[in-house]
Amino acid sequence: MATDRTDPYDVIVVGARCAGAPTAMLLAQAGHRVLLVDRAAVGSDTVSTLVIHAPGVAALRRWGLLDAVTAGGCPPIDTYSFDFGPFTIAGTPRPYEGGSTAYAPRRTHLDRVLAEAAAAAGAEVRDRFSVDELLRDDDGAVVGIRGHGPGGSPLHERARVVVGADGGHSRVAREVGAEEYLTRPTGMWAAYTFWSGLPVEDFGTVSRPGRGWAAIPTSDGLTLVGVGWPVAEAAAYKADVEANYLATLDLVPGFAERVRGATREDRFFGAAVPNAFRKPFGPGWGLVGDAGYTKDPITAQGISDAFRDAELCAAAVDESLRGVQPFAEAMAAYQLARDVRAMPIYEFTAQLATLEPPAAEVAQLLAAVSRDQGAMDDFAGVTAGTVSPVDFFAPENIGAIMGAAAAR
Ligand SMILES: Cc1cc2nc3c(=O)[nH]c(=O)nc-3n(C[C@H](O)[C@H](O)[C@H](O)COP(=O)(O)OP(=O)(O)OC[C@H]3O[C@@H](n4cnc5c(N)ncnc54)[C@H](O)[C@@H]3O)c2cc1C
Fold this sequence. Notes:
Layout: E1 3-4, E2 9-14, H1 20-29, E3 34-38, H2 54-62, H3 66-70, E4 80-83, E5 88-91, H4 107-120, E6 124-127, E7 130-136, E8 142-148, E9 154-164, H5 171-176, E10 180-184, E11 188-196, E12 203-208, E13 211-217, E14 223-230, H6 234-239, H7 241-249, H8 253-260, E15 263-264, E16 269-271, E17 275-278, E18 281-282, E19 285-287, E20 293-294, H9 302-321, H10 327-352, H11 360-369, H12 373-384, H13 389-392, H14 395-407
Parallel strand pairs: 1-9, 2-3, 2-9, 3-6, 4-12, 9-19
Antiparallel strand pairs: 4-5, 7-8, 8-9, 10-17, 11-14, 11-15, 11-16, 12-13, 13-14, 17-20, 18-19
């Protein structure tokens, strides 16, 4: 027999990581009664290469959580480098809310800080609790969840709004049939692991035709190195992940030698991520984070996007609960704001993730960028999400970069 409580929550948030925990925190801070559930344990690991760009760092600062996140021992990352073979672009991203610094904390630490902040704000946090089904009223509107905790007995919980922050394979999105749009082909399959004895200071990426990798300083003095191949070659890569990973690094022998001299401290993690938006709302339900919008990790946008969308989604849900705006209108504004901000970097990301060499005119532009520190800082800002690709690749800006290169 399922237990059915009579006093509904204002909001149930399914998924307690980068998207769900801040959404729950912000709604609880706004005075709403919030239940935050996750089938995983708070503080457990997940697949991610960890980089939080300046806009995400700014969100943590606004929420008063930056010190707690960096207390986990992850160093500041102030410069980004992009090695294209014949030239390297290295710069400091243009600032966002006064800061350019990125961090790459282990998710075991970051996600715990976020879930604890939700609890401190007054949300009821229930981890190791799986949602098995959404509850509907006679009109089909979502009115709650059916799930189970470690004991296994089914539990019903009701709410005025259920927010799915349950990741790219979102059960909430699947059950409500959330429409997908602007899908782009999946780009790469990447594997990463953690190394000691391999100090790096910047967020460094290397691109070679059909191959790419990144080295990122993270918590506990470790360096994360992730290596991507086109998804069409994923089966070949997976046939021997370690050998293929190391052989790819041999494309830059000096770095490969450093990795071979370092100590691997963890297993290999691997993933390919689809590129798609989902409509993030309908009667009684919303989506936030990867549940509503996923993209290839090559530009490391997911965590910062999840923070931004948590703020947008929580504000929309709050307005509807307070009767300021009807739910559908408030959530449509959230969807529009999310899509307008995400679209340019989404297209840039999907293109980059093919790992195809840049077209000749783009290669020419990037070579010119590599000789101009201001342009390199702007390019770093594109990846960091502090400079719009629309502005960077605008004809006037390209003209200015090429003109300056020609005059040199
Ligand atoms: C290989 C790889 C590298 C990446 N690198 C970066 C990077 O460097 N920087 C960056 O910003 N982003 C990166 N990302 C993306 C980033 O990890 C995601 O965008 C981010 O984790 C999304 O957060 P989320 O809260 O939306 O979802 P998730 O982190 O996926 O969390 C969803 C949660 O929902 C829970 N859940 C799911 N179903 C249920 C259910 N039925 N009941 C209860 N709970 C449920 C899960 O247990 C999980 O804890 C990377 C992703 C991958 C795969």
